[in-house]
Design brief:
It is built from 9 helices and 6 strands, in the order ααααββααββαβααβ. The protein is an alpha+beta fold. The protein folds into 2 domains: 3-91, Arc Repressor Mutant, subunit A, CATH 1.10.10; 96-189, 2-Layer Sandwich (Beta Polymerase, domain 2), CATH 3.30.460. β4 (128-131), α7 (137-151) and β5 form a beta-alpha-beta unit. α2 crosses α3 (30-37) and α3 crosses α4.
Length: 194
């Protein structure tokens, strides 16, 4: 358990706080909040009740025909809302080693480049670029979901085989160029991608 989860009482509470404060206009049902934060449904319901009682989030009833429906949303009128949001943004960081260890569950990696959310660059269309041969899509999606739960934000990602990646680099593919032409961090490079 990291230091912040000790400060906030539990890892589940910290993940839910990040989810709501980093997506402050989105209404989440308790089931969706549990899924997005990778917490058990019962734990999520208990923590959501606690956060609602503290005034950090509030229940919101969706209007008839509203596609978001009813659930919980961040309470922007909470007295320390901006300070808490800034603190969580400044203190939320997933280490490169943790990202690599999580992504390795999908198979052997050749290149991992971080952009967008990780670098503050607005232009790139993806946040994580993964290159590897024999990558399995379901474990990769699950690994990305694990990282999303820690960050409290949804990530955009793309994966390629080594051959496909080299071809895309060779033809100056826009998606690949959007990563490498803008601020990015290459945390693993076994094929000299840059």
């Amino acid at each position: 358990m990291d230091h912040l989860s000790r400060l906030f009482g539990s890892p589940a509470r910290l993940k839910l706080l990040r989810l709501f404060l980093f997506n402050d206009d989105t209404i989440f049902s308790s089931t969706t909040a549990a899924f997005r934060s990778k917490t058990l449904k019962d734990t999520a319901r208990k923590e959501l009740t606690l956060l609602a009682n503290a005034g950090i989030i509030r229940k919101k009833q969706g209007k008839k025909g509203d596609k978001q429906g009813s659930g919980y949303v961040a309470n922007k009128k909470f007295a320390h809302y901006a300070a808490l949001q800034k603190f969580l943004r400044d203190s939320t960081d997933v280490s490169d080693a943790n990202i690599l260890a999580t992504l390795r569950r999908a198979g052997p990696l050749r290149v991992v480049a971080l952009s967008g959310l990780f670098t503050g660059a607005v232009e790139p269309k993806i946040d994580v670029l993964v290159v590897g041969d024999r990558l399995e899509e379901r474990p990769l999606a699950a690994a990305i979901h694990t990282i999303e739960a820690e960050l409290g934000r949804e990530l955009r990602y793309a994966s390629f085989t080594t051959e496909e990646f080299k071809y895309r680099v060779g033809v100056y593919d826009r998606l690949v160029r959007d990563v490498f032409d803008y601020p990015h961090r290459t945390i693993l490079d076994r094929i000299n991608a840059n």
